Amino acid sequence: MDGIQHRIVKVNGINMHIAEKGQGPVILFLHGFPELWYSWRHQITALASLGYRAVAPDLRGFGDTDAPPEVTSYTCFHVIGDLVGLIDTVAPSDEKVFVVGHDWGALMAWFLCLFRPDRIKALVNLSVVFNPFGSNDNLIEALRAYYGDNYYMCRFQKPGEIEAEFAQIGTETVIKEFFTFWTGDRIFLPKGKGFGRPPNTPIALPSWLSEEDVKYFTTKFDKKGFTGAMNYYRNINLNHELLAPWAGSQIQIPTKFIIGDLDMTYHMPGVQEYIHKGGFKRDVPLLEKVVIMEGVGHFINQGKSNEISKHIYDFFNKF
């Protein structure tokens, strides 16, 4: 953590917190849920030592970045507007940047490459594959039909409801539950029953997550709350509608994709077929490599930090 600098930049009408370290070509790191810039702490240090300038923002609604109150202020266009503004700030004069994304950050990285390929040199994405879009299908209802009402994405839809339940459970417990739960299983949150454990049940942390790490995430989510983060999920259907003009578009950026074989996202309907039977390469024709890491769950950048840093360096070093 030594040498990581923090500052606030004005982008797209909001104040965005960024952490950065190093000198050289810019690598933009985009976090997921329930995460922060801090999720990239290991990669920031590693890549900075290898001659890159690592820049990791708190996305809108998270950490020390502004959280607009309106649910509809969290569409993909708002978030990508923030990121383009950030690129203009840290890489002026139309310089291209490298991008690394995980979870929601991976999804936003796909969109960033789709909308502004002129600003992106290469991409390493973790856990979330490119998702073709364009129809007006109600994705949340499709998930509800497949998994049921208690599936976590479905439970996140009603503003205020899950936030109230998380307040009762306690932020620290919520953080620990998510970071220890996301393996090949699905997350279900029955109303009033939290994560299915009795209150005050001890939660054993994985080796890659310390109590100090939990304290950092907890402090920030205690301050900010979960609403901004939830609003990404509440715009899933709207994003799908907004992206209709890009139906059939391809990602034309050199890409490396990494996922754990225990990651819940790897076991969602159709994902493995999409990855292994040609669909992924069709939609991302410059996809150079897919890495399936054995025995690894969802939080791959934290759980396998050294390996992920090496994968990033080995790929970006070619450009």
TrEMBL record:
Gene3D superfamilies for the chain: alpha/beta hydrolase (3.40.50.1820)
Keyword Hydrolase among record annotations: yes
Catalytic activity: (24S)-24,25-epoxycucurbitadienol + H2O = (24R)-24,25-dihydroxycucurbitadienol; an epoxide + H2O = an ethanediol
Top EC category: hydrolase
InterPro entries assigned: AB_hydrolase_1, AB_hydrolase_fold, Epox_hydrolase-like
Record pathway: Secondary metabolite biosynthesis; terpenoid biosynthesis
Domain named AB hydrolase-1: residues: 25-300
MF annotations from Gene Ontology: epoxide hydrolase activity
Pfam families: Abhydrolase_1
Keywords: Hydrolase
EC code: 3.3.2.10
Lineage: superkingdom: Eukaryota
Keyword Transcription regulation carried by entry: no
Its biological purpose: Epoxide hydrolase involved in the biosynthesis of cucurbitacin and mogroside tetracyclic triterpene natural products (e.g. siamenoside I and mogrosides IV, V and VI). Cucurbitacins have cytotoxic properties and exhibit deterrent taste as a defense barrier against herbivores. Mogrosides are nonsugar highly oxygenated compounds used as high-intensity zero-calorie sweeteners; they also possess pharmacological properties such as regulating immunity, lowering blood sugar and lipid levels, protecting the liver, and acting as antioxidants and antitumor agents.
Similarity field: Belongs to the AB hydrolase superfamily. Epoxide hydrolase family.
Full protein name: soluble epoxide hydrolase
Natural source organism: Citrus clementina (Clementine)
Taxonomic classification: Eukaryota, Viridiplantae, Streptophyta, Embryophyta, Tracheophyta
